[in-house]
Amino acid sequence: MEKYNIALIGLAVMGENLILNMENHGFSVAIYNRTTSKVDNFVKGRARGKNIKGCYSLDELVQSLKRPRKIMMMVKAGKPVDELIEQLIPLCEKGDILIDGGNSHFPDTRRRTRQVEEKGLLYIGTGVSGGEEGALRGPSIMPGGSSQAWPHVKDIFQSIAAKVKDGSPCCEWVGRDGAGHFVKMVHNGIEYGDMQMIAESYAIMKEALGLTPPEMEPVFREWNTGELDSYLIEITADIMGKKDEESGKAMLDVILDTAGQKGTGRWTSQEALNLGVPAPTVVEAVLARAMSAIKEERVAASRLLPGPAKTFSGARKEFIEMIRQALYASKICSYAQGFQLMREAAREYEWELKFGEIALMWREGCIIRAQFLGKIKDAFDKKADLQNLLMDDYFRNAIEKSQAAWRTVVATAVELGIPVPAYSSALAYYDGYRSARLSANLLQAQRDYFGAHMYERVDKPRGEFFHTNWTGRGGTTASGTYTV
Questions:
Q1: Does the global pTM surpass 0.85?
Q2: pLDDT tens column, 141-178
């Protein structure tokens, strides 16, 4: 009986397209879906005549594979993954490899790696980004887990991954246990920030300048030829030019202003808080979607709550260029936050993350793919232990050139009552990061006043803590030091 190179479970959009991608690159694929009618429809439809075998039980699937067996799960994150692992373990043998290609939360991947390895099997948790088109033509793939598994799947993954101009695949081993899914999570958090900043650019042009979506289409097309060249800017231009066939209006004008989310941006925000890493732009992007969700409340509030009555009176063309510069500067700060978060996670979880390779993996195939990521790779190639992207010459100079325009755009939006939480948070992050002294000395004095939490002094070595009897009524007992 013919043995197949790899198996894939789950015939939703991503699963189907990954299967076809693998087969197109010369790999034979065994497939399974819990709803077996999907197997029939796929085998008789898009997979007809291809080296793809439909299986109708997990046992049949496992038995159809070459050893070590490689089984990729493309099912809903959470409980379905755990249930599938429990079913597969008894059917597999020592050295077989289970692969989770869904959007699993990285702590689950860390746990599952331990669980599967204890049974003598190997485990990979891999982020896959690129949507339907990317899955078929070449996604960005971010694998992590059992390092012994990588040589067995490397050829398949790197063959089907997107490629940069020199042919390098947008896929490399990230690290042990949950590293791959962590990097994918940060990718998605940055994606939230990118999308929100582009939406704010649209809002400013719409509300301040009175531009319609068709009038904005050439603006975004032009932006996509320079520093902002990226997939998200490209599709934004397409969206601006699309008309609704039913009403004849701009498609954007008939879409309700309530945005959904699947949780990965929230996970990124939560992990930034857990690790104490400032990532305000991702957080604000998540909260902006939450604000959009309370549509009825916002409509009611719009009738009662006053705002500024000012209108924009400057030159429109010059201001559009300022918006472009503000978007680029904000984008730099957003990515700086994402890479800071990965740097701290590498320390916390003892991962050897290679940030230049991560930037390369995101250069093509994924949703945040952009020319800009080549500059990030260059920055880490020059200095592997770079503390922050803002400290790289290219990005520091880019911010310097854009800073005046950035501040003007944010100030104008505030004066006109246009909410720009991502722009504003990125600017606040920049100003905070470049400040040698912040107002946290007052916060620490307040904490010591009401809770005897102690403080450090500017005239003493770091690590020495002090307490003041602020009222004259307290004692000398302190509650302990603080976590920075």
A1: yes
A2: 999 999 999 999 999 999 999 999 999 999 999 999 99
∠ Cα 174 196 179 (to 5°):
15
Angle CA(444)–CA(445)–CA(446) in degrees, nearest 5? 90
Provide the token pair at 250. 């701009």
Nearest-CA neighbor of 58 among 78, 86, 87? 87
Residue 142 — φ and ψ, nearest 5°? -125, 80
pLDDT of 214-263, one tens digit each? 999 999 999 999 999 999 999 999 999 999 999 999 999 999 999 877 77
What is the mean pLDDT of the segment spanning 454-467? 95
Amino acid at 219: V
Instruction: Give me the residues paired with residue 140 across strands.
Output: 129
Cα–Cα–Cα angle for 386, 390, 394, rounded to 5 degrees: 90
CB count in 10 Å sphere of residue 456 = 17
Exposure of 250 by Cβ count < 10 A (0-12 exposed, 13-18 middle, 19+ buried)? buried
Per the listing, tokens 């869904």 go with: 102
- The answer to whether the bond into 68 is cis (omega within 30° of 0) is yes
Residues serving a catalytic function are: 184, 191
- 161, with CB counted inside 10 A (0-12, 13-18, 19+), is buried
HEC letters along the chain: CCCECEEEECCCHHHHHHHHHHHHCCCCEEEECCCHHHHHHHHHCCCCCCCEEECCCHHHHHHCECCCCEEEECCCCCHHHHHHHHHHHHHCCCCCEEEECCCCCHHHHHHHHHHHHHCCCEEEEEEEECHHHHHHHCCEEEEEECHHHHHHHHHHHHHHCCECCCCCECECCCEECCHHHHHHHHHHHHHHHHHHHHHHHHHHHHHCCCCCHHHHHHHHHHHCCCCCCEHHHHHHHHHHHCECCCCCCEHHHHCCCCCCCCCHHHHHHHHHHHHCCCCHHHHHHHHHHHHHHCHHHHHHHHHHCCCCCCCCCCCHHHHHHHHHHHHHHHHHHHHHHHHHHHHHHHHHHCCCCCHHHHHHHCCCCCCCCECHHHHHHHHHHHCCCCCCHHHCHHHHHHHHHHHHHHHHHHHHHHHHCCCCHHHHHHHHHHHHHCCCCCCHHHHHHHHHHHHCCCECCCCCCCCCCECCCCCCCCCCCCCCCCCC
Tokens of 327: 């978007």
